[in-house]
């Protein structure tokens, strides 16, 4: 089965058709995301994106905002870059702190975190994330956004390492204000391995 790496205008469903499948589609994507989510430390969560999650996201934005045809190109422009290209993993990293004052204080110390995220094989930091360049993710005052979009580019040999069950693959954040690491469970490795060619 051929993989899709880009959503086009012709892929967008009419909203009246989407309305009929929206509930079931949301349940399917929610189940899919369970195998594509990894907590790193107490408040960082990585959501690994793919064609299906972005297809759903675009349709949800169109459904909620009801911008019609004029909105479609903007959504395609915003979300297509988050579909992995066959040689990468793409993640939305969210720092989730419910209490507003504590969240603001935490983010004010987290500047540059988008440059401190890596994937390691058997403990060796190997692949460093690169941030989406649509907007600055750290402002001039050093405050980080609570949402980061990161690409992890793999070589062919690194893809083999990732898929190798005898290799421990982990993801970490090495920032002075937040230093945590988590090992990828096997079910997440299995799910994410499908993102590669």
Question: How does this model look, in words?
Answer:
The structure is a single chain. With 197 residues, this protein is α+β, with helices and mostly antiparallel strands. The chain has one domain (12-193). It is built from 6 helices and 9 strands. The chain has helices at residues 15-34, 51-65, 69-79, 100-108, 156-163, 186-193; strands at residues 37-40, 44-48, 88-95, 117-121, 124-128, 130-131, 147-153, 169-175, 178-183. Strands 1-2-3-7-6 form a 5-stranded antiparallel sheet, with no helix packed on it. A hairpin with a 3-residue loop joins strand 1 (37-40) and strand 2 (44-48). Helix 1 (15-34) crosses helix 2 and helix 2 packs antiparallel against helix 3. The termini are close together.
Per DSSP, what share of the residues sits in E-state strands of 2 or more residues? Answer: 15-25%
Shape: globular
Please provide the ordered H/E string of secondary-structure elements. HEEHHEHEEEEHEEH
Q: What count of structural domains?
A: 1
Q: What does the average pLDDT come to?
A: 93
Helix/strand class: alpha+beta
